[in-house]
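Students often ask why inverse folding is considered easier than folding. One informal answer: many sequences map to the same fold, so there is more than one right answer. In these notes we will look at a single instance of the problem. The structure comes first.
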């Protein structure tokens, strides 16, 4: 891998192919439409699964990438089901950060029942720190990604409070289309009886959209404070979108 001629604005790091589509697919499409450079790094190939194979998942990932119109996508080649935060994995991921130089990293929420997701979060946070180190044998120039936000790819029945919700009202269809590309995970061998996994994904996006008075949304949280320099955009939004208040 060589340094990108144009750094990425946003890099979503996903434990498995389809995690980015499920969790931040709408955000990636919306940001791409706003002129930002967006990419996805899958840490593993997601296999084995009951109806998949490495070749099938690769074809599905390519199809989903085309739907999302990503500027960049790669796979780090770590092992599914035994994903670990090792020094070698940290070095490989830190090198990707140095070569893609993203302004924002999107990472899985740190609490989950899936060990791969928990390991991925720890790995991403450590690699973010390592990517700024000088006097190493890693490729690329030292670089510290300025921001890391966590998306809700959670198997636990928990409801964390987000720091913000991204409006995906205009990109929900692309999000769902990208998820449908993974037929081996959501269609093959599954009864298509309500509620299907796709119903759940859409309904969660609808709930988060409701929470911000929009049609659909995707939630994010942050361990660090988020800087705001102006309230002007928020006040303009309030003028346009404030719902009528119920009178008693």
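Output (designed amino acids):
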């Amino acid at each position: 891998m060589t340094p990108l001629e144009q750094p990425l604005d946003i890099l979503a790091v996903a434990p498995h192919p389809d995690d980015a589509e499920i969790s931040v697919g709408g955000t990636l499409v919306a940001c791409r439409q706003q002129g930002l450079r967006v990419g996805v790094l899958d840490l593993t190939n997601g296999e084995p699964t009951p109806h998949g194979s490495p070749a099938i998942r690769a074809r599905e990932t390519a199809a989903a990438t085309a739907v999302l119109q990503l500027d960049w996508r790669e796979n780090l080649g770590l092992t599914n089901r035994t994903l670990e935060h090792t020094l070698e994995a940290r070095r490989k991921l830190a090198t990707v950060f140095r070569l893609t130089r993203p302004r924002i990293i999107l990472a899985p929420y740190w609490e989950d029942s899936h060990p791969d997701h928990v390991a991925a979060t720890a790995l991403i946070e450590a690699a973010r720190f390592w990517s700024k180190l000088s006097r190493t044998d890693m490729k690329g120039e030292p670089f510290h990604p300025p921001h890391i936000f966590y998306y809700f790819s959670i198997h636990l029945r928990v409801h964390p409070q987000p720091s913000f919700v991204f409006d995906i009202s205009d990109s929900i269809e692309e999000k769902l289309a990208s998820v449908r590309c993974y037929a081996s995970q959501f269609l093959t061998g599954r009864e298509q009886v309500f509620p299907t996994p796709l119903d759940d994904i859409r309904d969660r996006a609808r709930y988060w959209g409701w929470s911000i008075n929009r049609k659909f949304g995707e939630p994010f949280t942050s361990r660090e404070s988020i800087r705001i320099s102006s309230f002007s955009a928020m006040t303009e939004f309030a003028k346009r979108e404030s719902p009528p208040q119920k009178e008693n």
